[in-house]
Amino acid sequence: MSYYQTDNFEKPETKPRFWKSTKFCVVLLAIIFVFSLCSYLWQINYISEKGYKIKDLENQISLLKEENEKLAISLVQMQSMSDLNGKVASLGMVSVNEIVYLNESAYLARR
Q: How far is residue 39's CA from residue 9's CA, in Å, rounded to a whole number?
């Protein structure tokens, strides 16, 4: 009769899983950290670049508004009566004393 001893069974040695190893976790965390840092720096650079572009466009808008106001003032000055009277005099035109209206029925050609 043979008896087996069941007390001394040993579990076979197993290697730790690749993703459970400490070295893998450290490397993975380092990669995630570097990627996060790079994306953060890229976002900050992108936002600051857009901020400078917005500031430049705002400056252009203010310059164009000033130029528009100057042009509006010069338009009003050119359309003023004193300017028009000056142009009339320089062209050699004379003022009209009496206005004569033509009667259309009297001057129409008839067949």
A: 53
